[in-house]
Amino acid sequence: MSNDYNFAYLDEQTKRMIRRGLLKSIAIPGYQVPFASREMPMPYGWGTGGVQVTSACLVPEDKIKVIDQGADDTTNAVSIRQFFEKTAKVETTTHTEKASLIQTRHRIPEHDLDENQILVYQVPIPEPLRFLEPRESETRKMHALTEYGLMHVKLYEDIAHHGHIATSYAYPVKVEGRYVMDPSPIPKFDNPKMSMCPALQLFGAGREQRLYAIPPYCEVISLDFEDHPFTRLKANAECELCSANNSYLDEVIIDDEGNRMFVCSDTHYCEARQADGHRGKRNRLDQEGYDATHI
Amino acid sequence: MYVAVKGGEKAIANAHRWLDEERRGPVKIKALSIDQIKGQMSLAVSRVMAEGSLYDPELAALAIKQSQGDLIEAIFLIRAYRTTLPRFGTSLPIDTDSMQCKRRISATFKDIPGGQILGPTFDYTHRLLNFKLLADGEVMEAVNQSPEPSSMPHILELLNNDGLIQQEKATSERPHDLTREPLTLPADRAVRLQALTRGDEGFLLGLGYSTQRGYARNHAFVGELRIGFVEVEMTIPELGFSIVIGRIEISECETVNQFQGSKTEPAQFTRGYGLVFGQQERKSIAMALVDRALRWKELGEDNLGAAAQDEEFVLYHCDNIQATGFVEHIKLPHYVDFQSELELVRKLRHDAAELEKASE
After folding, report:
1. Are residues B12 and B110 in the same domain?
2. So what's the ipTM on this one?
3. Active-site residue among A57, A197, A218, A239?
4. Is residue B161 part of a domain?
5. Which of A210, A249, A286, B91 lies 20 to 30 Å from A129 when distance is taken between CA atoms?
């Protein structure tokens, strides 16, 4: 395959077009830049935006990590990683801190990112106002005029109805005091990690043909009210494999009685902690016949 | 005991081998050849070429074979291949007046210059299963008769001579290319027609139908429908003149619509236009209906709030590759989002229960 296609699949002209879009998006943090998204050999809605951004950013020296739901071994993450292994022959890794580029769907890694890293998000619906106003022609106007009243009314109505803001993922943020931005469907637990992040954060929405970015060290604020400040949300538990109590947890059903266990969604973070000797309650060394250290 | 799901790579590889086996079907039966698909499933080939936006019957047939007959999947294969192709240049506009028609009908005039040609059509066939085909029944050969050479002018142009039909505006601008530039709104007619011609047949059929049933009702007649081959010409810069680079089969439909006039336009007929690769009569008619409905603003008509009039709605949703990707993507893992919803619902229920307790 790699002989038949250009490095990282896309041709150089297309990559150039995408890079131009990315530069514009970095220059205007949080602003959605239209770009001529290409038809990729994987379905729209499955990461074609992220894949195009990654393709435009990759150089042969890169070391790439791909995660979906925080995990390196979910099927779509495997598929996208294989795609770049084949078409770009770059080194891959599951280690967050060793990767120079991380493509993600729905999570930000637990481990802090640094200035030498790029985080590429796959975005299904880039428009934070879309569910309030379905028309692109309208929402573009609203952004241009910084007319975000509708969003605040929605959040206020949530509080009036439920006592809380009833958005738990894809929680809207404001970037550098200007654009309201959709952080992609990450849990709101991850939102604070976007702010003042040393890594470059790039967002690609293939089907919707939009690019946007958060340059390093930008202020990203989750929308809230003074009397109802933003709060992070995670299961009130600790990881049963590595005992982490500060990581985002998946709830896994473990038998047909409906019993559950909580486990880190970030597989590399969990593995690294276990390698350091941290043990959760289902993973004590004295438990026989059970070895989950390879998760 | 919890067993972590691992081995995604192996699972994917095995799943694909299984898929390949299913696609092939029982090996005792001879495999379908590309020529068979091309020759005997030509309407499916047409659809894949049209919605895949690539005129290549052989590759379309290959895609149909590879996709087990799932035409949207086949269209997807063609689209993904098409993106990788270099672009040499742009052809001259095709001249459908000089089409070699195998079918050409008008519903508005009983007789037309050049004649009505029924051609190979399902129309007037009684939809009775032909059980002879179960036993590989041979077919009667078609009757051959050489055509009388005659020109086949577009019927609606005859109305145009009388000034009874609205004039199409010629534009010298280079049309926007939907596959190379992002869609922006409002879109001009060239962009709309590009989107419609590669749009999903079923989606356009439903929308076109809705205009007939009163959602932005605008009664249309098929002014002319023609199917046949046209030559594609391209100007080669080194030569300085144009040469024919090939022939393509297309279906073209012009509808003629009643129009009582508006604030800006006198009473006259107006038209809708459909042009599709291959033999795709249904699609070309539906396309013309939707094209006409989308022209309300240009003709000074009222926006009745119908789906077929709504450019943004139609253009953003007519592409079946975009639609199928996004509709089907919800089968991908979403446990992180779902987990956050779970926590939220628990929290809301907990709060509500507390509140109820307090009020008791």
Report:
1. no
2. 0.82
3. A239
4. yes
5. A249
Lowest mean pLDDT among A62-66, B110-114, B158-162: B158-162
Chain B nearest CA to A148, separation (Å): 21
| Partners of residue A73 in chain B, C-beta under 8 Å | 5-8
A242: annotated active-site residue = yes
Chain B residues whose CB is inside 8 A of the A282 CB are 2
- The set of residues, in sequence order, having a beta carbon less than 8 Å from that of A146 and lying 6+ positions away, is A178
Mean pLDDT for each consecutive 10-residue tract of chain A (295 residues)? 75 94 98 94 92 97 95 90 93 96 97 97 96 92 96 92 87 97 96 97 96 98 94 89 93 86 94 93 63 45
- Taking the C-alpha atoms of residue B191 and residue B176, their distance in angstroms, rounded to an integer, is 6
Return the residue of B nearest to A232 by Cα. Answer: B340
Helix axes B320-328, B201-212, angle to 10 degrees: 110
Alpha helices in B25-129 (DSSP H): 34-40, 42-52, 57-66, 71-83
Instruction: Say yes or no: B64 and B193 in one domain.
Output: no
Specify whether B107 is located in the same domain as B241: yes
Question: Averaged over B331-346, what is the pLDDT?
Answer: 86
Q: Quick check: is B216 in a domain? A: yes
Number of structural domains in chain B: 2
Burial classification of residue B109, based on how many CB atoms lie within 10 Å of its CB (0-12 exposed, 13-18 middle, 19 or more buried): middle
Indicate if B182 and B74 belong to the same structural domain.
no
Residue B356 covered by a domain: no
pTM of the predicted model over 0.95: no
Minimum distance, in Å, between the CA of residue A272 and any CA atom of chain B: 16
| Residues from chain B contacting residue A37 (CB–CB below 8 Å) | 182
Closest by CA to B3, choosing from A280, A254, A286, A239, is: A254
The active-site residue out of A21, A30, A70, A206 is: A30
